[in-house]
Amino acid sequence: MKRLPLVQFPESVRHCPYVVTCPTCFPRMNPTRGSNFSVPLDATQLLIIWLLRQSIISSFFIRSIMEDVKKKIMATSNEAGSSMRQFDFFDAHTHHFEELALERAPKEIACAFAASFLVSPIVSIIDKCMVKDISSSEKFISAMKVATKEIFTQPKAFFTGLSFRLTVIVYFGTYAVANLSEMVLDIKEIEAYEERKGYKVAASAVANIGLLAWRDSVFAREFGGGKPKAGTPLRTIGLFAARDASTMYATFYAAPKASDYLIAEYGLEKYSTEFGMALAIPVFTQIVTAPLHIHAMDFYNNPGTSTEARFNAIRQEFSTVAFARGFRILPAFGIGSFSNNRFREYFIRHDYDPEPNPNRLARRVTKALGMEAELPSIVKRRTTNQQ
Question: Which residue segments constitute the domains of the chain, with CATH numbers given?
Answer without folding.
Answer: 1-32 (no CATH), 100-347 (1.50.40), 356-387 (no CATH)
